[in-house]
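S.,

Sequence below, as promised.
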Amino acid sequence: MVLALSAIELVQGIGPEAQSAKWVAERGQSLYHICLEVEDIDSALDELRDKGVKLINDTPIVGHGQCRIAFIDPSCTGNILFELAEPPRQETQ
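The prediction came back faster than expected:
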C-alpha cells in the first residue's frame, strides 16, 4: 500500500449541527482525523481487511473533491480516525 500525506485541512463547522462542530463540542479542540492519500483504495482496503483492521466503510464512498474515501475504525488506531482517499484519476489526452 503506497501512502502519502496530501494536505492539512483546517475544518470549522458552519453551524452547531455540523459533524465537526459536534465533535469539538464533545471532545474539545484537537486533531479531528488524519487523511492518507492512496493510489488504489480498493487494494488498500483489501490489505487492511486481510490484516484484521476494522473499517467504517467496507467500500469507498465519494467524498470531498470527488475523491473515493473510506474510514478506518478508530478502535484499531489508538482512537484516531483515519481516512483513506483516492483522488480522481486525471484524464490524459
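The first helix runs from residue 19 to 27.

Coffee later?
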